[in-house]
Every structure is written in structure tokens, then in C-alpha cells.
Write a structure and sequence with these properties.
single chain; three-stranded antiparallel beta sheet
């Protein structure tokens, strides 16, 4: 009985192992390569799959999702014989699990080496300045070459990015000095432009202020002259309306004489020649107002004999 029990246990174990090997569960976005006696049979897709135990074997399980692989910096020589280190990142996706398994031994290594050689070909035709400013052009050219070469491997290259382009240290120092000089130059130009604009605005303001001041003074002078003319016209019209005679004018003339002589600085008083006419008019006015009747005036006393005239004084010469 014991040998039979042992045989049954062995059979149960074999059946259990066979069931495990028969049922294959493939995760989503994955694929598996099945070989029968070392020869490719089929590709298992995601889900529950049945294989022949002990005859079919799983060769490789491949992830069908998009993969990101960064490559270490690679030294590349530019057209002007400068060595730059370039970091690249590849975004790829396996589209054919069979081709990725049997067409190339290691597609990751193959993509890396193809990227390095393609970069050397592309950068070798550019100088340093163009290399630093043509990332999009380099990415497009590199992606085109990689996509064409990896298509037969069952791989699609979606994107190629250059993480960094590092020129030599001496070139970096020279570039920093050049950039600093350019920034200083732009700052000096902007400052000069600001000073120039400020001076222009200040000159325009002063010009406008002078114009407005002159216009104001001209208008004020015109208004002042107009007011004086109006005052003279009013006085002239008032005088003519009052119809003054010679007596009133003579009296007004005599009233203005003290005002003419006012002032401490007046050392010399010039009597105008018209004073005689004014006095004659004033005397006539007084005589006209004198009484005509009454007692006769007393006779005048006889005049005393005149004293001998004094000799004229000599005026000192005027230098």
C-alpha cells in the first residue's frame, strides 16, 4: 500500500505542476514569447493563456509601456574642434515583442550606441554656437535616425531630448565674460537713452514754459496797454465833455508844480516856459472875480530912489 500511496502523491504533484505550467497569466501592457523545443511558437498577450506544459516555455516577458532611458554624458567633437559633453534621454516603446527578442540581442545597448554615433555625426557638422542654440534641430535629426534604425527591432522612438550640453571650462568662462560684457553694454545703452530722453523732455518743457511765459507777458502787456488806452480815452472824453476853459487848465497846471518838485534827490528845479501863460490866465481869472464898485483905492506912496545896481556876480566855471 505504501508504494501505491507514494505513486499517487507523485502523480498529484505532477498534475499540480502541470496545471501551474499550463495556465499563464500575463499582466496588462505586457507580452510573453513562447518557444516550443527552442523554436518561436507565439506571443502571449495580456490575460489568461494556456500553454502545453513541459513542451512550451516562456522565453521572455516584455513591457509594452513607454520607457525612459537616460544615457551618460558622451564626449562629442564640434566642427570647430571643441569637445562638448552631451546628456541624452530616449523615450521609446516596444511595438513588436518578437522582433525585440530575436532581431537584436540587447535593444537598450543598441539604442545607446546608435545615439552616440548619430550625435557625433550631427554635432560634427556644427560649430559650438550653433550646437548650443539648435537643440530642436538636433532632437529632430536624432529622432529621425533612431526611429528609422529601430523600426526593424520592433521599437518606436517617441522622443529624444538633450538634457545638457557642457562645453569646456575655458569656453564657459569666455562665454560668461562675453555675456557679462553684453549685459553691461546694454545697461550703458539703456542708461544713455534714458539720460537723452530726460534731457529732451526737460528741454521741451523749458521751451514750452518759455513760450507760455512769453505769450502770457504779451497778453498782459496788450491788456495793460488796452487799459491805459481806455483810461486815456475816458479822461479825454471827460475833458471834452466838460469843455474846460483856459482858466481851469492854468489852475490845474499850478497844482501840479509842487508834485513835480517833490523828492529829496531833486537838486535842480526847472520852471517850464509855459508858467507865464498859466499865470496870465490865473491873473485874468482873479481880476474877473474882483469887485467893480466901492471906495477908490488909496494912492500909492512915492517910490523911493532906487539903489545903485550891484555888479553882476561871476558864475564859477563848470567843469
Amino acid at each position: 500500500m505504501e508504494p501505491i500511496i507514494i505513486v499517487l502523491i507523485i502523480l498529484v504533484v505532477l498534475v499540480f505542476v502541470a496545471l501551474i505550467k499550463t495556465i499563464q497569466v500575463i499582466p496588462q501592457a505586457s507580452a510573453a514569447i513562447v518557444e516550443r523545443f527552442g523554436r518561436y511558437t507565439r506571443t502571449l498577450n495580456a490575460g489568461l493563456n494556456i500553454v502545453v506544459p513541459f513542451i512550451d516555455s516562456i522565453r521572455n516577458r516584455i513591457d509594452l509601456r513607454e520607457q525612459v532611458v537616460p544615457f551618460p554624458p558622451q564626449p562629442v567633437i564640434t566642427q570647430d574642434n571643441l569637445v562638448v559633453n552631451i546628456d541624452t534621454v530616449i523615450y521609446y516603446q516596444v511595438t513588436d515583442a518578437r522582433a525585440a527578442t530575436y532581431e537584436v540581442a540587447s535593444y537598450i545597448q543598441a539604442i545607446e550606441q546608435l545615439t552616440v554615433t548619430t550625435l557625433r555625426n550631427i554635432i560634427g557638422g556644427m560649430d559650438l554656437e550653433r550646437t548650443l542654440t539648435s537643440r530642436e534641430e538636433i532632437n529632430a535629426a536624432l529622432r529621425g535616425v533612431l526611429d528609422e534604425a529601430t523600426g526593424k527591432w520592433g521599437i518606436r522612438v517617441n522622443r529624444v531630448e538633450l538634457k545638457a550640453i557642457e562645453p569646456p571650462t575655458s569656453i564657459q568662462d569666455s562665454m560668461e565674460k562675453q555675456m557679462r560684457a553684453d549685459r553691461d553694454k546694454r545697461a550703458a545703452i539703456l542708461q544713455a537713452e534714458g539720460v537723452r530722453q530726460s534731457e529732451i523732455l526737460r528741454a521741451e518743457g523749458e521751451k514750452q514754459s518759455a513760450i507760455l511765459r512769453a505769450e502770457g507777458e504779451a497778453k498782459a502787456a496788450a491788456l495793460r496797454a488796452e487799459g491805459e488806452a481806455q483810461a486815456i480815452r475816458t479822461v479825454f472824453e471827460s475833458i471834452h465833455a466838460g469843455d474846460p476853459d483856459q482858466k481851469l487848465l492854468s489852475y490845474q497846471y499850478l497844482q501840479m508844480l509842487p508834485k513835480i518838485a517833490e523828492g529829496d534827490a531833486n537838486k535842480l528845479w526847472i520852471v517850464p516856459s509855459e508858467i507865464g501863460d498859466a499865470l496870465k490866465g490865473l491873473g485874468g481869472a482873479i481880476n474877473s472875480f474882483a469887485p467893480t464898485g466901492g471906495a477908490p483905492a488909496a494912492p500909492a506912496a512915492p517910490a523911493a530912489p532906487a539903489a545903485p545896481a550891484a555888479p553882476p556876480r561871476q558864475q564859477p566855471p563848470i567843469d
